What we know:
There is one protein chain. The chain is α+β, with helices and mostly antiparallel strands. Helices cover 36% and strands 25% of the residues. It has seven helices and ten strands. It has helices at 2-34, 88-93, 106-109, 125-147, 152-170, 184-190, 243-250, and strands spanning 39-44, 48-49, 62-65, 113-122, 175-181, 197-210, 215-223, 227-229, 257-263, 269-276. A four-stranded antiparallel β-sheet has the order 5-4-6-7. It starts with a helix and ends with a strand.
Amino acid sequence: MKIFKSSWGLFVLAFILLFFANAVVLTGVYINRTMEATSQIVLTQRELQMPYKNKRENNGMSLKLVYRILNTDISKGSYNKIPAWLNAEKLKELGFDTTNRDQGTAHYKKPPTKEVFIVLEYDGEAYKKSLALAEENFVEKEVLFNAKKDDNRTKMDYENAKKRLNREQISESRLFAIDAGLEYEKLREEYPDKNTYIIVKGLVRLVYQNKIEKEQSASIQQLNTENIYLPYKFKHVLKDITTDDDLNNRVGSAPKYEVEIKYGIRYEPWISSVETI
């Protein structure tokens, strides 16, 4: 009987904790959505991708926000998350200590991380430049291939450039990280179009790209929210789209859906509509 009472007490305590935990979460969600959205944008399957797992269904899934950085060296790709604009001047503006470059210090061995606001540009100048770079690279490889069609290496470079351009035109994300700052209002003043520029919270970490010259830069470690929950009321829209379709999308197929997302006053996103294309 004593054990029963004890178990009952634990059950009640667990229920109360669960109730308050849910109340805190729901209150946070309510507060986030009560004011005017801080960002509101329509993205496609190129920028909001289905997970690799659960190939046969999309129940209980989230869509992953896929963003890139502009890299003028096309061979390095655009997903390394070390943008050129995160230079010493920008890092100082973000509050990092850019003077401590002694390799023997903890500062160098374990570079600090800082939460900042990150600006993501959709289908803007960064994407146009990335597309132009892919086109220039393809033209260059095509000229070389036409001059030496029997050379296997030249042929392979041409085929790779052709695939890269195809992905850039059809399936790669057009969302690029282009700037960062400490104040949302200041960034929004500089990037006022909420339908083109998303301002989100994320983590930036110092890195040393060149240990000899001790060149200091930084990487975008992650966004605070990269996986956005798909509400149950929208799941029927994507019921015929499998993750196999999404995988195909990543290698050169056109997107099959578009999604409107909004960010609230806590800079947390939610999905407000989903449509097939």
